[in-house]
Amino acid sequence: MLSYLDIKNLKPKDKTYTVTDAPGLYLRVWPSGKKVWIINKSINGKRVVKQLGAWPDLPAKDARALWEVCVNEGKAEATGAFTFGGIYRDWIELKKTQIKNWKDIDERISKYLLPDFDSMALAGISPPALIKVLNEKLGARGKFETVKRVCGYVKEMEIFAVNSGRINMLRFQGIDKVFPKPSSKMQHRPSIEPSKLPEVLKALHAASITAPGTWDAVLIGFYTLLRPAEYCAMEWSWIDEVTKIVTVPAEVMKMKRPHTVPITPQLMTIFERRPRVNPFVLASPGVRDSHISTAAAELFFRRHGLRDILVPHGIRAIGRTWMAENGIDDKVAELCIAHSVGTQTVQAYDRADLLEQRREAMSRWCSFVESCLK
Prior knowledge:
3-stranded antiparallel beta sheet; 7 strands
């Protein structure tokens, strides 16, 4: 490859001549002294000749990046291995062996990015193009938490692409920084006061006959106070009917540490009536060996008049508020909703999960929810 000094020292001659920088990438020097980057390369049997730009306006580093894009696009047309979709599908197959909630990743990428970028070479997608799509589909709707998650998936996938030899450089590692940070107001999920819960549950229960599986998911959300992604992925093997606890693995929990949930009589009733058709308590009715989508309950709420009033994640806020109003110790209440308590140092030394205190608190809370249903 040519260094800056190599290029600077190239002198014009009576006739135009070229100097090789990389296979198929040349710097053409004109008698006038002008130096122009060109591609002249056979890719999959097709001759590609393209003028990229003049040096020094187009530095060697950028010329090589454009050359890489051109080469990878040609390979992608032939094999699909270098396309966004091809790389994504290889990456998600790897994720399936590493994490349990990979379906949430697949759902978001398939919905927000694959329609625009599936067949495009990853090396040919510019950060501004990716940011534009995310802004149009998510930013304009205020879904900044989803934007952050999708950006994280793309950055991880890009690292996989570099390490597997599909691309030679990282370009998406800072894309999440261009999106505005949500204000504390924007971060709050729609929720209601505990006093309004009887009215809301009455409306939802009346509609439950059309979606019994989703209704069970809603009730499990109330009776566990887990996050939607955590209770939707719940497996039968996590349930211990002897000790009456559900142990959620660290890889499923947002806080990345195991969490135990006391099984109340109300929650056990749900478990007893659920069919055991696959490893998941909330088995998907349409996808074999899968659990229901985390969006199912949210759509259920929207369809029955609760848009901008309550979302599944807001159930946790109702439970936490009710506990504060009913004298539950703050630390016990925070542990009931799987929040971290105290500084990192405190968390490192204080490993108590206050299971018995949480069992009593959850029993009282579930009894309140049951009374609202009645």
